[in-house]
Amino acid sequence: MSLKQAIELISMNRILTFKLLLIGGYFLVMLLFFYEENLFIPTDTVHHFGNIPFMAVSISFGAIITSTIYNFSLYVYLKNRQYLYYSLAQTSSLLFLVNLDAIFISPFDTIFGFKSLMFFDISQLSMLIFSLLFLQVFFRSYQVVELDRLIRAVLYLALIDIFVVLFFSHAFFIKFIPIFIPILLVLSESARYVKKRDLPFYLILVGWSTVLIVVISEYFGVLKLIGITFPFLHIAIALESIILSIAIAYKFKLLEQEREQQKTLMLQQSRLASMGEMVSGIVHQWRQPLNVISFGLMNIKKSSKGQTKNIETIKKLNEQVQYMSHTIEDFRNFYNPSKVKEEFCIYQAIKNSHTIVRSTLESAGIEFRVEVKQDFNLYGHQNELEQVILNIINNAKDSLMLSHSKSPTITIIVDEPIIMIEDNGMGIKEKHLSKIFNPYFSTKESGDGIGLYLSQMIIEKELKGKIWVNSYKHKTTFFIKFDKSDFF
């Protein structure tokens, strides 16, 4: 753990400790000064709803029931626990509202025909338990496990409170610490730990915030003070059920897309590994003949005393042997990458990529240039960056061969923290620029649309950088930018 991470952890623990102290202080105040008001609640009818509020309650019940059935169906089909927990949380919310209406609101007190504070408390505790279980599973998809201990502690207290209800017919903890407080605590902590904040995360916050605002206003008597009688809580819970159902479904879609990306990347790595085995076999077969040729050239050189022309020819042949040996070694290193991350030089990665395609570029008459304004080192898998550079070079080569340019050129510019890869080929049409990194999209007839998609995955997921492309007339430039925190 770095010093910066340690300081952040201490700071976060201090903030959580401060929040817990506030909650503890609130609990003591409620226990000491408002014991009877909180523990013994009268069961008299408080509100009388007319036709419009009655319709609003009915519609809200319909939305909650629909959301419950929808999420439970998804659980049955997908076997994902977050759907089960949320459907159970919605069921508990429905039971809570039914109990609330039966006890305090007319005409529901006669429609439902029962008044039980015991079931009222159990429904609240069930709502708290399943909501926290849902949030725990949901935030784990963001690689957040720091909330587990906090959620576990609240769950233990909720379970103890359920036993208290069963023995004494009323709860204890939630009388003095209403359930919106632990949920608000968990949500506020999640906002500090979640790094990748996507749309589902914001939808979760919006959905829960809608309910919390109404609940807090109701709890502290704000709505009663201004004389408003309307089923805001029913509507808020119904809206929350719709918003969170969308958030859960969308998050599942995003996770499926990530799995597909990882599957595609693993398939590509498997292909490279297979090619690596083949290249290693070729290296093994070539090594001995190349050694024999090199040894033979040495003997010929010894017997060619004073014959300058022969010695010069032998020198050139020996250079070609060495070139073949280095080239096949570069191929083997490319297709058999190291599994361990390490520091590597950007310029060296570019040179290695060029080695793979040098002969192809030369035979096509394409000039290849590298301009190093400011070189830099990166921490990661060098082979992954080489794959990206090689893929962009190959695409540039194909474009240049189709364009029939008089002076086809590929230029790579290294200027910390950016790599620019330019070509003067056919360019990319403006309508294709926004799709160029999409999977299975290709402007080439024989293209599979995987190369640039994989390149973007490698740069953004593996090397924590960014990649984008600009194209104007006959010039196309790919930009690769890295985070300076990964530099050495």
What does this protein structure show overall?
It is a single chain. The chain has 488 residues and is an alpha/beta fold. The chain has 3 domains: 33 residues; 220 residues, Rhopdopsin 7-helix transmembrane proteins, CATH 1.20.1070; 147 residues, Heat Shock Protein 90 (2-Layer Sandwich). The chain is 69% helix and 10% strand. The protein has 17 helices and 9 strands. A 5-stranded mixed beta sheet has the order 4-6-7-9-8, with helices on one face. Strands 1-2 form a two-stranded parallel sheet. Strands 3-5 form a two-stranded antiparallel ribbon. A hairpin with a 2-residue loop joins strand 6 and strand 7. Helix 6 packs antiparallel against helix 7 and helix 14 packs parallel to helix 15. The chain is elongated and about 120 Å long. It starts with a helix and ends in a 6-residue tail after the last strand. The model has no long low-confidence stretch (mean pLDDT 82).
